[in-house]
């Protein structure tokens, strides 16, 4: 199915507004009208599976486009699809289902456990993925789980609306038969009301199943900023176990501690570190940076060691992702959606932070309010002027690499 082309044409000038090198902001270029053609990347085209899967596979593993859309369509056929946006998708006036302009995705991470009811889960990881109209860069912005939000009424679950932490929106939408689709729809609507941003697509990632994706990659290189005791896992006879399971053994338990420094982590270890917020000076803000670091690490690892140039390895990676992912690409087929992002790689991923990466004064770590600069950043996303905004406000760049 051909993709509509109702949005403004994308610029091919790498200096056009909207693009900024990771962690090193440079002045935006003269505009989008230049006739310059972008130089080819050194990595082959078929070894570039997009950042949509870069961020979507943990919103990620930074996959790169492999071969034709037919190959992509076959490889992604196992991924569950659903209506995750409801009426928070982009209107026709905002571009509708066209992918010619900027692309915004809502990425929601849930940490569902087998013993929990399916409709009693909050989304503690909330990330906006923004790709400017140039389609050659991508930005990740984490919204703090404790942000106070006005959650609108939601007929599907019978929720009457109210003020709560933003992560409660998912739970409120999922109850009474709303399901995870309802949870995502209410979250998307809440964020749209708060920031003005409408979405082209969305994804729900179940962290419990996401370990398989990292295992398919082998390991990922993570840098731990300080010794971090795990709030969830302990060693028993040399084996890392969930605390609840470890207690059942009746054997001595030693807390898992993620030691300061850089190392290759297996799936369980990388995910456990990315889950931690206790014992960290900035709590959920530090966790956000650790999660963003994991996304970048997965994107880099996926582009190494022939992972993306080997169809067998790539298929294994996508199958692992399909078990932990629900995806909504609007009215656009997945293969069109992914192929549109073929110019984006893991190295083009810029991670951003709200509120300077720390709690607002007197927030008391219970309810958080997004400051004026953060709200300006969301406005820049909506207007596709994020590159210029970052150049003028480099403090929004995440310092974690």
Automatic annotation (TrEMBL):
Signal peptide: none annotated. Residues 19-30 have a biased composition (Pro residues). The chain crosses the membrane at residues 45-67. Residues 122-303 form the Cell envelope-related transcriptional attenuator domain. Pfam families: LytR_cpsA_psr. Keywords: Membrane, Transmembrane, Transmembrane helix. InterPro entries: LytR/CpsA/Psr_CW_biosynth, LytR_CpsA_psr. The keyword Signal does not apply. It comes from the Bacteria. Residues 1-41 are annotated as: Disordered. The keyword Mitochondrion does not apply. PANTHER family: POLYISOPRENYL-TEICHOIC ACID--PEPTIDOGLYCAN TEICHOIC ACID TRANSFERASE TAGU (PTHR33392). Belongs to the LytR/CpsA/Psr (LCP) family. This is LytR family transcriptional regulator.
